[in-house]
Amino acid sequence: MDVTPVAPPPRSRRRLWLTVTAVAVLGAAAFGVAFADNFADLGAYRYDPPKTFDGLPLVPEASKAKQSRVGSESGVSATTYLAGDQQRMVFLTVSERHIFLPSSELDDLLSRQRSNGEEIADLHEVDPGDRGGVMKCGRADAEGHAIAVCDWADGSMWGMYSETAEDVDAVAAHARDFRRQAEVPS
Q1: Minimal CA–CA distance to 100: which of 161, 44, 175, 180?
Q2: 78-118 pLDDT, tens per residue?
Q3: Contacts (Cβ under 8 Å, ≥6 apart) of 80
Q4: Which of 29, 46, 104, 141 gives 20 to 30 Å between its CA and that of 112?
């Protein structure tokens, strides 16, 4: 008769898998709560520029010319508004896309502008307005003309708002107003 002790049955790994699953579910829930606003803003708005903005009419021909310089990147639109006396101009470039981290996207946009030789002086963060996201404004020089520039990014798009003006704070207010009119619910 063999008196060798019988090995115990192998332990069930059920408890291990339940623990791993519980940790994964809790981690996903924490991630969802932490980034809930980012998920809610994805694709919340689409770009629909108004026919007139702040008394300036939309100039389709200039918008098409600017569009040809912007390129055929999917979702990129170029818009131009021009006063009759041509003293005041507003130029916009907007790219519609789902943006999960607007601040990172805005930093990438500003980096691309710098690499293209566009220097924006006194760049600072401003209130992005009720459409949310992040917005930074500053001053630049375009072919000898002083312009103020406001770049923004939110969950639905990034944009560059440029206006022939020197008062950056006034242009930031115009950019917020333009976003309120041109970013319409999807």
Answers
A1: 44
A2: 899 999 888 889 999 999 988 888 999 999 999 988 888 88
A3: 58, 59, 62, 63, 66, 89, 90, 91, 92
A4: 46
Assess contact for 148 and 171: CB atoms under 8 A.
yes
Residue 129 backbone class (left: φ over 0; alpha: ψ -120 to 50; beta: rest): left
**Tokens (6 digits) for 122:** 């006194």
CATH of 45-185, one of 3.30.2310, 1.20.120, 3.40.1000, 1.10.10: 3.40.1000
Q: What is the pTM of this model?
A: 0.74
What's the CA gap between 51 and 44, in Å, rounded?
22
Residue with tokens 């291990």: 16
How far from 118 is each of 5, 16, 26, 48, CA to CA, in Å? 81, 56, 45, 26
**Band (69; pLDDT cuts 50, 70, 90):** very low
Torsion over CA of 85, 80, 174 and 144, rounded to 10 degrees?
-70
Show the CA angle centred on residue 94, arms to residues 32 and 183, nearest 5°.
65
Distance CA 63, CA 51 (A): 12
57-to-52, 89, 145 alpha-carbon distances in Å: 4, 10, 21
Residue-wise burial string across 25-49, b where 16 or more C-beta atoms lie within 10 A, e elsewhere: eeeeeeeeeeeeeeeebeebbebeb
